[in-house]
Amino acid sequence: MTDIPASAPAPDSPHPSHRLDDSDAPWPQRPWIMAAICAVAGLIFHMLVDRGDAASEPGRSALAAFVAIATVVFVLGAELRRWHWALGFALLWGAAMGLIAWSSAGYNLHSSMIEWPFWSGLLAVLVATPLFQTRRDVAPDGRFWKLWQMPYARLHSHAWTDAVIGAAGLVFTGITFLLVFLIGQMFSLIGIDLIERLFRDDWFPWMLAGAAFGGAVGLLRERDRLVSTLQRLVMIVLAVLAPVLAAALVIFLLSLLGTGLTKLWDSGFSTAALMMAVAAFAVLLANAVIGNGTDDRANNSLLRVAAAVLVVAVLPLAVIAYYSMHLRVIQYGWTPERIWGVVAAMIALAYGVAGLWSVAKGRRGFDDVLRPLQQKLAIGLTLLALFLALPIVDFGAISTRDQVARLKSGAVASEKFDWAALAFDFGPDGRAALKDLAKSVDKTRAGLAEWALKAKDRWELNGSGSAVDESDMVYGAKPIEQKIRIFPVGRSLPAEAYAALAAQGQCKTAPCIAYVLGDSRIAVVSRGGNVGLLVRDAKTQQWSENYDAFRSGDTTRGLTIDELEKVVVEVRPVTRQQVFVDGKPVGEDFE
To answer: Could you give the residue ranges of the DSSP H alpha helices within 390-485?
Structure first.
């Protein structure tokens, strides 16, 4: 299909057109309309996420995701021409992301909607938007399954323009916040604090952010001819970096022939993540060089050679990333994060193979071979990312089966097993497996599983991040009352104080000392000589830790010149308290 618009050029308009595509009529009201839409969306988003514990209500998380995604997709992709297509596209993706957010928010205990599936869905949205825009521009009808027939130049232009406009909109939003803040401070100097009070109300910042972003996107979209120039400038600047990265990759890959891969595993960094990040930069810079088409690519031969090197280098980088993930899985088994890592590595491998094939077949004209392959890869990436983001394939269930099998086979000891992951990372299947393990004839395994089931969060189960052992498990199973030694002898603690100590977790796997200083103050000494002060609020009667009591400089105040010259000065003894264990001071002194 050629790059022919689906509709006739826009009729003459009293407003001068700054549009890149003559088929798009000027829309002077667009900035105001988009600002209003985003402002209302910001208010709705605030009402959904900033009232109560939204994380514990998956339905509200889903509605918030729907509002945010649908609004941003519509604002970025809407045109007067076929605006109802843009509305339907935005609502469809908003519903999909809402479903993903609902599934993620209710998957684990205390989980957020911003989990790996959400990021995968967001990637699908970002890739699908320029595909939709291109199809809307050139399609004679709504047959969206003919995506592979779209003109690459227009698709590539939409992708870069969306990125530039989105980034510029975010920058404008930040500048708007700074400007409004400065105006508020200026008026507060004369006693008018209206703007400051508005900022303290959560609804105002959300509406301001929405209005600023929507207005900026609408304004820039109406001047996309200027944005196209800015896009070309960005691509030229990025293209200059291509030879730098290409040379670095050649030296790095040749160096590996001598050093081997061992140093990569011993570096302490995530080798797979680093390799895939470099591969992503290689793809970005290569596309900045080859441009939208043959007429748009860089004429400099050095840049074109560098782009070819970058495209080819993606494959070895992807192989290293995949092998790194392979080693981790062999050593420690599957987890949802490792499954996502393997998927990302396989996507990089697919692009690497396509890049190598394009260079081998096209030689100097490799970009003509690569562009249609990139278009097909983009479509495939969208479908794959959406499929994996939706609650169809359960990575937690896969990880649970693998980790439990490793535990039962003896590949990992009970004391070294990651019980926190099974309880809080692997979803319903993980907790169901814990219930089964709690019935095990192996007392150690059953006790650790029972402990993990009773834990309310990861910190309570394994706050230090170190592996638990059998003694920790045995001691952790004791009631909190049996873990506390109380002084002076004969004193007792109220049930509320015991509950506060149990919630804090410092007495989870080791005994503590509680020294009663009064009816509302208790000094707590835990393992390692850490001293805390537990106090009871006079109004709420709730016990909590008081950190201010250990700050030695609280009584310091500034002195005026008149005081320095005239007031009486004296030195007085100050009495403070400190815990002594076996006659030796422990922790800091306190009031």
So the answer is: 395-409, 419-424, 427-437, 443-454, 458-462, 470-476
